């Protein structure tokens, strides 16, 4: 999304700010799924 806005020159979005979220989100999902498996929720 940030790259698209930057290409269209709508606004200068700091894409680097989103990079940690791209890496962290899947890890959090994996951890939550694992916890659910362990506790049988």
Helix content: 55-70%
Number of E-state strands: 0
Shape field: rod-shaped
Task: Name the average pLDDT.
Answer: 75
Count of DSSP-assigned helices: 2
Q: What is the assembly state of the chains in this entry?
A: single chain
Spatial extent as radius of gyration: 16 Å
Q: How does the helix and strand content classify structurally? A: mainly alpha
Could you give the distance between the termini?
Answer: 34 Å
The biggest beta sheet reads:
none
Order of helices and strands: HH
What are the segments in which pLDDT stays under 50 over at least 5 consecutive residues? none
Question: Proportion of β residues?
Answer: under 5%
Description:
With 41 residues, this protein is mostly helical. It has helices at 2-7, 19-39. The chain is built from two helices and no strands.
């Amino acid at each position: 999304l940030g790259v698209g806005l930057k290409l269209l020159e709508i606004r200068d979005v700091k894409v680097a700010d989103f990079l940690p979220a791209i890496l962290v989100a899947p890890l959090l999902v994996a951890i939550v799924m694992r916890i659910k498996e362990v506790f049988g929720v």
